Amino acid sequence: MDAVFHILFPALILVLIWAGYAIVRRSNERQAAWRSGLTAQARVVRAYVTVQVVNNIARRIQWHECDFTTADRRAIRFKESGGPPSRAAGDEAVVYYTVQQPDKATASEPSPGKDAFGVIFGLVVIVVTIGILINVMVQYG
Fold first, then answer.
1. Confidence class of residue 69 from pLDDT cuts 50, 70 and 90?
2. Which of 38, 41, 87, 141 has a CA-to-CA distance to 58 between 20 and 30 Å?
3. C-alpha distances in angstroms, 33 versus 36, 60, 69, 89, 130?
């Protein structure tokens, strides 16, 4: 039982910290792409759905893989989750990107408020979960 409190819980806490970092990083990449003002017409190369099962509840995640050419004529391909389920292979979409990291582009329409809410909600869930894990470690460890 000690292994749970000394190995598993700290490992879960590290994974949660990494997840929080990933949420903030992707939000910053999207914000930078929207603020850059650079757009390009992209073609959806592939659209597919993955399914995650959490607590016996299936969650469908829509993915799009897009090709576009930057203003300096570089060909870029990127994958992004989310987006409208009606977007299919062969469709056209406007992408927002930065000169420094065009592979971190987004085909999502600018929605900073929605993005900020998602980041805050995700971080709150992560912090509460870490708090619960630490509390259980202190009480029973």
1. very high
2. 87
3. 5, 26, 15, 23, 31
User: Are 113 and 81 in contact, with CB atoms under 8 Å apart?
Assistant: no
Distance CA 59, CA 6 (A): 32
- Contact status, residue 30 vs residue 108, Cβ threshold 8 Å: yes
Q: Could you give the residue ranges of the DSSP H alpha helices within the chain?
A: 2-3, 9-36, 112-140
- Distance between CA atoms of 52 and 61, rounded to whole angstroms? 8
* Residue (of 80, 57, 59) closest to 68 by Cα position: 80
Question: Residues of the chain with pLDDT > 70: what percent?
Answer: 99
**Tens of pLDDT, residues 80-139:** 988 888 899 999 999 999 999 999 999 988 888 999 999 999 999 999 999 999 999 888
DSSP 3-state of 70? coil
